[in-house]
Amino acid sequence: MSDHGEFRQLKVLHVVSVPGVGGAQAWVAGITSRLSKMGYRVSIACPDDASSISHFNGCGEVIPTKVRYSKLTPLSDLRYFVELLSLLRDRRFDVVHLSAAKAALYGRLAARAASVPVVIFNAHGFPFHDFLNPAARITLATIEKLLSRYCTDMVVCCGEAVRAYALSNNIAPSSRLVTIENGVEIPESLPERDAARRTLGLPLETPVIVTVGRLARQKAPENFLQAAASVSREVPGVRFLVVGDGPLKSRLQALAEHLGIATSVQFLGFRDDVPLILRAADIFALFSRWEGLPLTILEAMAAERPVVATAVDGNVEAVEHGRTGLTSPAEDIDQFAMNLTTLVREPDRARKMGTAGRRLVEERFCVERMARQLSDLYQRLDERRQTPTAVDGAYMRHRHSHGQTD
Q: Do residues 381 and 95 lie in contact, with contact meaning Cβ atoms separated by under 8 Å?
């Protein structure tokens, strides 16, 4: 809504380049379904695999695109750019909102070439993280600086840690960086723990710890297994569920055998019943090396589960140590294991943390709040292109009045 109270039913295109169902896709599905209900004319340009198309059905108009989820592939990437450019020139969207690396790169270039009025990049994190080699990091950071400064009207950061990282790397002026925290759907009713366990075939009395995420370097699943082995030595009988898939899966299965915990760890692969699994578990764990503001943590909190996580980036924005969960330094396997063991041994404390986490999500990390803030941004940026000076000032005053300072 603009300061003048006029709501424009803008044509909005969300572009995501990652196939399947994961964090970026869940974010896009959540926000587009809300924006459609608010009156926006929403379209989603997504990969043309069946799972992606199915995932976005009901969220808006689904436009399949031929994008390869891999490293740079010049010929297919050029085709993807041309496909996006043709779409944007033909459909004349008011706002183009981009998520994930290839969408952010080729989508912003295509949007500027097609003279799209408002171009937004949603930063769930940046590809030039500290774990890259210096040459790759400098190259990717330079590309992002150029895109953010010359092809982007606003960079939406999913948390304050992401915005701080962008500022520290001089990615864009502070006036082009705004924080709109991730939000998740909050189920109105939750299945009872024992009922969820019966559905999944899990024993009722056994402590269960679950981790959800891509089995790749960022999530450090090998560290989680090391911690699981330590917990098992301290509290025999604990069951560990690993939800997700990725390039490290076979290596992790071999590691579980080597650590002697293969019978205690279940690799469940990709699942579409994560909320049920969270309710069946007692504790949610995430051993990330770097993050934006992970939806899995918010979903676990919405399911009233305490969180044990590494104290990196956006993790600490959601996990309040001692209140909604316990945190430990990155790579500190021993402390992570101690935190898990503590909550296994203190179930009443764990339940109180889960209740506090649910309240925090309701207050701060719900998808409705995120949608209202994003809608406000769309309206203000749309008005700014018509009266730039006046609305720029009004928008900055609005940000300060809501506690979003530079």
A: yes
Query: For residue 107, what is the enclosing H or E element?
Result: helix 101-113
Characterize the bridge pairing of strands 283-286 and 208-212.
Answer: parallel
**Any domain includes 306:** yes
In a domain, 332, yes or no: yes
Q: What are phi and psi of 74, to 5 degrees?
A: -50, -50
Domain count, the chain: 2
Same domain assignment for residues 100 and 161:
yes
**Quick one: 209 and 352 in the same domain?**
yes
Here the tokens at position 170 are: 């001089």
For 200-223, give one letter per residue: b (16+ CB within 10 A) or e: bebeeeebbbbbbbbbeeebbbbb
End-to-end alpha carbon distance in the chain: 23
Is residue 6 situated within a structural domain?
Answer: no
Residue 96 sits in a domain whose CATH number is 3.40.50.2000
Same domain, 158 and 227: no
The per-residue DSSP string of 295-325 comes to HHHHHHHHTT--EEEE--TTHHHH--BTTTE
Please list, residue by residue across 166-177, b when 16 or more beta carbons sit within 10 angstroms of its beta carbon and e when fewer do: beeeebbeeeeb
* Helix runs in 153-303, H state only: 160-168, 193-200, 221-234, 249-259, 274-280, 295-302
Could you give the angle at which helices 23-38 and 367-384 cross, rounded to 10 degrees?
A: 70
Cα–Cα distance measured from residue 234 to residue 255, given in angstroms and rounded to the nearest whole number: 19
pTM: 0.88
Residuewise pLDDT in 10s, the chain (406 residues): 544 568 899 999 999 988 877 778 889 999 999 999 999 999 999 999 888 899 899 999 999 999 877 667 788 899 999 999 999 999 999 999 999 888 999 999 999 999 999 999 999 988 777 777 888 889 999 999 999 999 999 999 999 999 999 999 999 999 999 999 999 999 888 899 999 999 999 999 999 999 999 999 999 999 999 999 999 999 999 999 999 999 999 999 999 999 999 999 999 999 989 999 999 999 999 999 999 999 999 999 999 999 999 999 999 999 999 999 999 999 999 999 999 999 999 999 999 999 999 999 999 999 999 999 999 999 999 998 877 554 444 444 445 444 454 4
Calculate the alpha carbon distances from 296 to 153, 245, 301, 388 in Å: 29, 14, 9, 38
Residues of the domain holding 217 = 193-364
